[in-house]
Every structure is written in C-alpha cells, then in structure tokens.
C-alpha cells in the first residue's frame, strides 16, 4: 500500500515537478489506448498517426501562443481570421507577384507580426481589453481575407506545400524504415534521459528530495517506450511518408517556447503579469511590453499556422481557420491553464490539444458525424474543467491540475487548494 | 461580568489541515454581553478558530463541540451561522465598491415584496441601521466614495441587518486611522451596553486593554489562558507575555545608529493625481536620507505619504510634474520602476497581497522576482542559484516555511512580509522605502522586522519607513518627517519626537523647523 501511495504521490501531484509531466503523458496514452481498442487498432496505424499530426499541427501551434496570451490574462479570438488573412496574402504573393516560396513564408510571418503589433498596440498601450480588440480583429481579418481573395481560393505552388504536407526525406541505407525519423526518435530518447538526470541533479544541488530512483526509472522507461513506439510507427508508414514537416515545426516551437516560458526572465514576466499585474509592475516588469509581446507573438504564430494549413490544403480559401480560436482556447484550458491568468504550461496545452485531437480523430474513425463529435468535444471540455474546479473547491487532489499542470508552475497546485480554503471566508460573507 | 450566562462555548476544538495541526484542543468560553478579545501571534490559530465557529469550516471537518445558546451547533456553512445570529466581519471588507451603501447592506438579504426588491423599505431600514452605527452618510452613496473607516461601519450595519447576536470582528481597526478607530471602539462599547456580545481579534494591544472584558490568548494552535481584564489587572505587557510565552523586554531591539553622509535627496517634488488632474498629491516636497539612517514618514491616512514614495519609485503613482532626485551627488531620472531598481531603490508596498506579491508564486520565485537578471546566466534562469538565494534569505530572516517551494499564499502575514523584504533585499538596494512594514503583523514578528530594518541601516543603506503607528515611528526612526495634505510639514529628530509634536505637525500646514 505504501509503495502504491509512493507511486501515486510521485506520479500524480507529487512534489517532484517532472512527475506531473509524466502524469500528463500518461493520461493521453490512456485516451489513445481507449480509442485503439474501440477502433480495432486503427488509431495507432502509421497513416492515421501521420494524418493526426498533419491535421492538428496548426491548432497545436496556435495553442502555444494562446497559452502565453491566457497566462498573461488575455484572450485572442482573432487567430483563425489572422491565419486566413496571412494565408491568402501569402498565396497571392506567390501566385501573382511571383515571390519565391521561402520569401513568401518570411512575408507571411511579417504580416503576422504587423497584425500582432496592431492588436498589441490596442491592448497594451491603449488598454482596450484583448477580448474586444481580437473580436474586432476576428471580423476585420476575416473580411480582409475575403476582400483580398474575392472570396475565391488561390492555389499555392509545390515547393510551398512542403511545410504543410511534406515529410522527412529518405536517406541512408534501406532499413525498411525512414532513417531520419528513427534518428529523430533516438535523439528524443537521449534528450528525455538527459533531462531526467539533469533534473535529479538539480534537485540534489538544491538539497531537495528528488523522489525515489525507481520512479524516475519507471517514468523514463515509459517515456522512452512511447517515443520509440511513435518513432517506429512514423518511420514505417507508406513509402514516401514519415514524420511530417509540420510536426517537426511544431516540436521545434514547443521546445523553444517551453524553454522560453520556463527558463528565461521574459517568460517569467508573463506569469508575473498574469498572476498580479500591479505587483509585477512594481517589481520592474514592463507591463506594456509584455502584453504587446504576447499579443504580437500570437499573431505571428497564427500566420504560421495559416500558412501550414494553406500548404496542406494546397490552396488558400475564404473559410480557412474558421473556429480555430475555439480549438486553441479549449486545448489551453483542458491543459490546466487558469481563466484568470498566471497558471498554465506549454506542455500542458499541447497535451490538452492532443486529447482533443485524438478524441476528434477516434470518433471520426468510428464514423461518428461531425454534429455529434462537436457535442462530445463540448462536453469533454466542460467536464474536464468542471471536474478540476470541483476537486479544487473540495480541497481534494486535483486530477487535471496535477496531470496537466507544470513543471514550472509547481507551486500552483498547492496554493490553489489553500486558496480554496481561504476564499469562502472572504467571498461568501457578502452573501 | 463573570456571572452572566454563557453564550458560546467551544470545547476542545481540533482542526487539522494536511500536514498541519492548525488548532489543537482549543477552548473558548464567551459570556453574553461581553467583549471578548482573542490574542495571539499570526499563525496562532485565531482566524481558523473563527472560521470553525462561523461555519466556513463546516461541522464534521473539525473535532470538538460548539455549544451556542445552550445547544450544540452543526453549521454547514456561513449562512447557517448567520441565521443563528453569528456574524463575522473580516479584515478585508466584503463590500462591493460600485454599489450603494443600501445595496451593500442588504446584499443577499434584500427585503422583498411580491418577489421584487422593496427599495423603499430597504432605504428606511438602511437609515436606521446607519444611525445605530453612528454613520452619517446618505445611504445612496457608493461604497467607493467613502473612506475605509466608514466602510467598516457599513459592514457592521450589514451585520445588524442580519439580526446579530454575536459579532466577530477580525482586526477591525487595522486599516483605520486613530480617529476612526476610536469611534469604532466607542461603538463597540455602546453595543455592549445594549447586550450585544462581541469577539474581537486584534493586534493592537492598547485597544484590547482598553475595551475587552475577557481575553483568550492562543499560541501555536492551543489555548494559553483566558484573562479577566479587571480582575486580573491585565496590561499590555501581560498580554504580550502570554502571546509569545516570554517577556519582551522592549518592543524594539536595541540599536545604536551609525549615520553617515546624505546620499539621497528629493527636491521640490510635485505630483498630480492620476485621474483628477487638479488635485496635487505632492506639493514641493523635499527630503534627504543619510546612509545608515532610518527616516520615518508620519501622516494621517490620505496625507500623501504612499503617493510621494511611489512617485519617487519610478513614477509608479500619479502624474509627475517637477522635481529632482539626487543620489550620491548626481541627479538621476527615474522614469520607470526598472530605472528605480537599477539605481538601487526598493519599495515595499503597504498592501502586500494586492500589489506586493503574486500569490500564485512560491517563496523562491517571489524572492528573485524583482531582479531576475541576478540569477540569469547567458539569458537562462539558473534554478539552483534561485533556490540558494531564496534559501539564504529564508534562513537569514527566519521565515517560517518548510521549504522555499511553499506557495506564498500559504504563509502568515508576518512571513509573507519577510518574503517581500527578501525580494527587495535581493535587489541590493541602497535605499529601501518600507510602506507600513508591520501592518497586520503580530508582536513577535514585528520585533523581528524591526531588527531586520536596523540591520539594513547598519549595512549603510538608507531606510524610509512610512507608518500610521506613531509609537512605531518614534521607537524605530532616527528622524521623522511629517506629511499633511501632500506637504512635508516637519523634520523632527528622534530626541524631539513625541506623539503630541508629531500629531500637531501631521494636522497642520504650518511649517515648524525644530532644528
């Protein structure tokens, strides 16, 4: 029993931060296995996994930016429209102005930056709530897309399509697998092991309890197993397919932004602003700069997501990006971010997004219509967050909080329960 | 008093949180019609006890019995206890600023007629209630337009609207100035004459001594003793002894100041109110601080002390008009908080929960928050350096927490204040501005904080202390400026500082130079 408790403590909501990340992955695996069972093994087939990544990479890229926006205490409703707007301009730049596609990508990112600067200006320097600014942006840039494209679709050239539908090329000896994908998986395994060792060493240097060694080993074994399995699956697909380029872009962004939010002063400032903006300001954080940055960054990522989508569907159209904002926001909240800001992680949001993606995919594989898929997704979002809120208010162990949550925001789970203890005193008395 | 019937008896109350025993075997006997004070250091369990009583922690989550009006209570929530006539007024007032006095008084308790709110009756009752608490104010006035002293009275009026039998006040005078405090205490005496029983939690021992009939002292979650103020001849020292378990020979640590040269000077500082531009909140203020000197700023609430301090601290308050800051002989321009920090200024705000700390953070994150550059190596935060810095301050300031991974929201007020002090000490400041550094902090922790302030001064830093407690300023500071309506009206050295002199300067614009 005590060993079981030990495991539970260390896997779910224990004091060691990495335990939580392991817990998150565990949840996702459970959902995947459920659908694997329900769809008679379709879910984990190579072609399905590849499609899953290609279809959702742009939403997950949006979730990265959205997480930062939400942690800073804002929201961005315009991402779908911004993506469509950037997409049509990029498509047009290649079709009519003959921009080479690498230049066009750069151009697309610049458009994102310009739109972001516009929205960031209103939010950070004028003080208009982001909800309003981006609601306006949602209309503005949707209309802009249709105005520029005359509500037509514009096809994009072959080279450009790589970012949306390309794969890692075949190189090296014929192993029956895609070698680069295998290499990537190997690198990931090494990185995961190195990280675990690093974090144990850090805990030791801080004289803190690093948790029992066997938990670390178990955790590593499962993670390496999952990575190896995924690498083999991606590498063994139909010839010519492998790990998608859009997936690589996503992984690179996840690593980059995780590092930024966790390990740099700039990232910490975002959490500080979301947690208590006045306190952050009085600690020397440049509030406006942080708010401007998160809004601008979001639009750049939205433009990138738009381009990847256009590249995948080979053309830019007037309905691109419809409803993306909702998927991205849902991913972030399922991933454990707080509506009031200050809490949340990139990795949590990615897992939240993957949960939604697997759900979507699994239901579709079973032939469930989009009407019912939407109903189910809506209920899952509501229930996931409601369960978390309920558990927190009962002062009990918070499942999503401990599974989806950080890592960097280790402390958040603990104060959350204590707040719940304190809160009633100050709030209910007014009633 | 002692022959009055027992209204409330709490018997061997034990309340545990995961890992902590907040209360163990606490007993409390309150007789009808008395004012019963509960004293104890922060973290002694006073608030927890009151939450058990008022049903915030419902029946079943604690051990022990509560007998109220002769019957066992089993309150399931705060509404149940309110129905029984137990009303608790918290330190942080639960009023809605954008609603009127009447609306606030009857919030959740609105008089109805055929389903709709009967505003006429509400108005009438509000007038009566306001008269009972001695507040002369139009009941249509919005809460945000009246001062905190009057807001406190509205809270009490609200309690009366619920037909209160036992009124619990948690630190009722903590945010009030002297006049408002006196008024409130008189009001409580009046209630006693009308047979209303009050329980009062307060750190202001002089008030307790003057108003309470019985005092129950808690320490570390246990009942130490219950004193009868008249029979036992209780004075402040006696209460302190009970609270800390030892005699505090002095409220202030012994200190021989080592004062050096003037190194920081503000000249002709003028600042306007951020919203109403016609209001000038700082008028030609000039002051100097020497190395190793503790300088006090005395003034009534609203005198402009905080505004002055914050506007100097990187113009973080109001609209700056004119004035210069000279540090180490050179003029410096501080346009932002970041500038101010870079030039060695630190400002510890008066409201640590609202603007001093991010309550989502843990101790280590909070400690380094104002100078992340110190733990950044090649653009990357060094977690080990962060941990070590936080741990060093935790030991140095004796912050009570198991580890620096503990969330700051879990700490008591005194320990939170130590974290805030650590946060600013971490920035290596030359000048620390401490705004009400001991507000809401118990006696023992205050003593420690005074010691920290003195140590900082002895390191050659300049320290400015803004405080509403004159004894604190007189006991701690080497020199005291008085502020009245945005103007500095006096510059009084320690040996000349007494409450009368200060009060005179704090309430008139006539400039008096004592040197």
TrEMBL record, chain A:
Its main location: membrane. It is found in: Cell membrane. CDD domains: TM_PBP1_transp_AraH_like. Residues 411-431 are annotated as: Disordered. The keyword Translocase does not apply. GO terms for cellular component: plasma membrane. Keywords: Cell inner membrane, Cell membrane, Membrane, Sugar transport, Transmembrane, Transmembrane helix, Transport. The keyword Membrane applies. GO terms for molecular function: transmembrane transporter activity. InterPro entries: ABC_transp_permease. The chain crosses the membrane at residues 21-38, 58-91, 103-132, 176-194, 214-235, 241-260, 292-311, 331-359. It is a multi-pass membrane protein. Part of the binding-protein-dependent transport system for D-xylose. Probably responsible for the translocation of the substrate across the membrane. PANTHER family: ABC TRANSPORTER PERMEASE PROTEIN YPHD-RELATED-RELATED, XYLOSE TRANSPORT SYSTEM PERMEASE PROTEIN XYLH. NCBIfam families: GguB. This is Xylose transport system permease protein XylH.
UniProtKB/TrEMBL annotation, chain B:
Keywords: ATP-binding, Cell membrane, Membrane, Nucleotide-binding, Repeat, Sugar transport, Translocase, Transport. Residues 494-515 are annotated as: Disordered. It is a peripheral membrane protein. It is found in: Cell membrane. It comes from the Bacteria. Residues 504-515 have a biased composition (Polar residues). GO terms for cellular component: plasma membrane. Pfam families: ABC_tran. One of its GO terms (molecular function) is ATP binding. Residues 8-245, 266-510 form the ABC transporter domain. InterPro entries: AAA+_ATPase, ABC_carbohydrate_import_ATPase, ABC_transporter-like_ATP-bd, ABC_transporter-like_CS, L-arabinose_ABC_transporter, P-loop_NTPase. This is Xylose ABC transporter ATP-binding protein. It comes from Actinoplanes nipponensis. The lineage of its organism: Bacteria, Bacillati, Actinomycetota, Actinomycetes, Micromonosporales.
